Amino acid sequence: MKILKTFTVLAVAGLFFASCGEAKKNTEEVVETEVAEASEEMAMSEVQETPTIVGVAAGNENFSTLVAAVKAADLVDALNGEGPLTVFAPTNAAFAKLPEGTVATLLMPENKSTLAGILTYHVVAGKFEAAAVIDAINSNEGKFTVDTLNGGQITLSLNNGNVILTDANGGTSTVVIADVAASNGVIHAIDSVVMPK
After folding, report:
1. Kind and range of the H or E element at 179?
2. Taking residues 116-133, what's their average pLDDT?
3. Are strands 143-147 and 185-190 parallel, antiparallel or unpaired?
4. Choice between 134 and 22, residue whose per-residue pLDDT is larger
5. How many CB atoms lie within 10 A of CB 180?
């Protein structure tokens, strides 16, 4: 009887330790799975952390007019492309400086190509951060001309440390916020809309 009790205790203990070992193994598998899933989520969020140029603009209320214009001109795909691109992005205040009714008129479907021309005049192929722009200006006797995606040119210069854009008509705009990172380039916010010829 004593032997039977001892055997029963050992069998129960064996089952207990076996189930503990199994539970530990299951717990380790669950933890490993959770860690793998968390790592995947972090990797995905890192990819999603820096949105495209359109995503950055859409996430900033100061660019709501620009985003509406980009949609109306059917340029979302172009500005979401691989790039890299540099966008001199007019703020809402910049658009507000245009003569009354200009923005509303440009947003009309029949003015889509005109609007697209104006918007692509603000885009340069390649990624030009502020330091590179300033170096280019200083290396070219104070002025640096860039080709825009609409085929026109903008001249960049410095005034009291600020980068100034001069358009084809002699109009000027100042970079007010530089180096806003996007996954497919960089955005520089400007205080006036520049116009092609």
Report:
1. strand 172-182
2. 96
3. unpaired
4. 134
5. 17
Concatenated DSSP letters of 19-78: HHHHHHHHHHHHHHHHHHHHHHHHHHHHHHHS--HHHHHHT-GGGHHHHHHHHHTT-HHH
Rounded to whole angstroms, the Cα distance separating 68 from 138 reads 35
Do the beta carbons of residue 192 and residue 174 sit within 8 Å? Answer: yes
Q: How far apart are CA 29 and CA 11, in angstroms?
A: 27
At 97 the three-state DSSP class reads coil
Q: Which amino acid is at 37?
A: E
Exposed e or buried b per residue across 46-83, where buried means at least 16 C-beta atoms within 10 angstroms of its C-beta: eeeeebbbbbbbbebebbebbbebbebbebeebbbeeb
State the amino acid at position 12 in one-letter form. V
pLDDT at 86 (0 to 100): 96
Q: Which two tokens stand for residue 112?
A: 């889509």
In this structure, which amino acid lies at residue 58? A
In single-letter form, the type of residue at position 168 comes to: A
